[in-house]
Amino acid sequence: MRNHSAVTTFILLGLTDDPQLEILVFIFLFITYILSVIGNLTIISLTLVDSHLKTAMYFFLQNFSFLEISFTTACVPPYLYIISSGDRTITVKACFSQIFFIVLFGATEFFLLAVMSYDRYVAICKPLCYVTIMDSRVCRNLILCCWVSGLLIIIPPLGLSLHLEFCDSVIDHFYCDASPILKNSCSDTWFIEQLVVVCAVLTFIMTLVCIVLSYIYIIRTILRLPSVQQRKKAFSTCSSHMIVVSMTYGSCIFMYIKPSAKDEVAINKAVSLLTVSVAPMLNPFIYTLRNKQVKQSFHDILKRLAFLSQKY
């Protein structure tokens, strides 16, 4: 039997060990986190309150905003606590819990983006059947499928990882990530590493194929429309989704194009920072600024609040 001292805590090195730079990182992450939560909560509130935003598209957008809040909350507040307290340690159980929620929310987001692309396909390619096809029962079932798919992606590799023994406790990241944790293990991790790759590739390829096919049919349909005005209107309904998809998949592709070993950690940290803090902050603005109905709903709510404040 191997004799290893039991590692019960990991040490997160974070983004930098420079105290002054860490203050700037704290301010940046705190501001982006607050803006992200406020922006996504605003979208959730608007879709719940406004009767004009009760279609399938806004139901999916509401769930996407919830996932964005959940995803950034799983990563950013724990790191803000590490910076403010100076305590870089995290228990093994807490680390695995963080990985579970990060991967669950992240994978579910990918599947939801695929569902949202299908929703746009039905809306543009089959407009007369849209309400019938995308009824409330179908929408709820599609959301449930996204969450179940996310669970199926994370449970097998995480379940196997819980039995690993660890020889090293240092994680060169600002949150718990699978790759550095597996490197810290003194157990044989070959099978788990392959399973992680298979799950990641399956999620990425399956959802990307669904999105690409949906947009091939969408673009074909838009190009067949007789007037420029109709084409602009049809394109505007899916342009926000296309921007978010490009940002999400682009960051993943950029992260996993293998750079040199020297630069790999720094690049992964930088892209991860953008993914967990900047993207969730920008997405509400992307959907709001490019969507007339959401903007109109927001203005109506502000008018009501202004009227009530004057009344009382």
- SS strand fraction: under 5%
Global outline: globular
User: What is the spatial order of strands in the main beta sheet?
Assistant: 2-1-3
Q: What percentage of residues falls in helices of 4 or more residues?
A: over 70%
Question: Largest sheet, described in full?
Answer: 3 strands, mixed
| Number of contiguous helices | 10
- The quaternary state of the protein chains shown equals single chain
Gyration radius, in Å: 22 Å
Mean pLDDT score:
89
Q: In terms of per-residue confidence, which ranges show pLDDT below 50 for 5 or more consecutive residues?
A: none
Order of helices and strands: EHHEHHHEHHHHH
Domain G-protein coupled receptors family 1 profile: 39-287
Keywords: Cell membrane, G-protein coupled receptor, Membrane, Olfaction, Receptor, Sensory transduction, Transducer, Transmembrane, Transmembrane helix
Protein name: Olfactory receptor
InterPro entries: GPCR_Rhodpsn, GPCR_Rhodpsn_7TM, Olfact_rcpt, Olfact_rcpt_6C-like
